[in-house]
Amino acid sequence: MKSEDSRQKSEVRPKKALGQHFLIDQNIARKIVEQLSPDVETVVEVGAGMGVLTQYMVQDILDKFYVIEIDHESVDYLKVHYPTLGDHLIEGDFLKADLNQYGQKNMAIIGNFPYNISSQIIFQVLKHKDLVVEVVGMVQKEMAERMAAKEGSKTYGILSVLMQAWYDIDYRFTVNENVFNPPPKVKSAVIKMRRNAVTDLGCDEKLFVTIVKQAFNQRRKTLRNSLRSLLSPEIIENEVFNKRPEQLSVKEFIDLTNLISSAASRGEQ
Fold first, then answer.
1. 0.70 cut: is pTM over it?
2. Which residue ranges make up each domain of the chain?
3. What angle in degrees, to the nearest 10, is found between the helix axes of 4-12 and 72-81?
């Protein structure tokens, strides 16, 4: 017969939600948590599921540790197995959360991020870049490669440029499919993002984002063709526009933004 404890666990065991694949390898879980830097003041776990990462943090850093979980069944499971979390367990949507209510500086985000919202999680971090100094996350391997890619690479793109403008990205290690339940059809990887020293890009940030997105949305074209709607006649023949977007570093995209912005300002005078 099942024990009372095992029956209780089976009753509240969460189902797979939001594209989540639950990590079941304790060695991998411990290794992920070990990537956190000791200088962070607050840690927020996204999508804790059954608490495979939570268990390695809840005892040591409870006073500065929060869990945000949107799935109700997972929240019930965590309440049963990690009662000391108390009001540090928040049932809600990380993508809509105001992270400032959990800490004022030096925050780290950690999690086995659901594949289908990984990019949205990363862009939510970007919105809080003045608060979030570090991210340790498991994502689909291809996404991790895109985030860490340097110019000249086929995987270098929008995510690479926008994140590397503010964070140093380190591809830590690859995770095989068999350490998950259910196993995904693709490999995963753990990345670590650490806030760089940039406080101001030195350009119009809104225009910078527009240029990066517009350029990579037509990445096979030269910048002269993909950005034509933004270019004035006086700069359209500049040699930089002979290049394709993957050839430009983050700094060169910033310089390009200033070139286009300056030309537009002169044209308005």
1. yes
2. 4-195, 205-268
3. 150
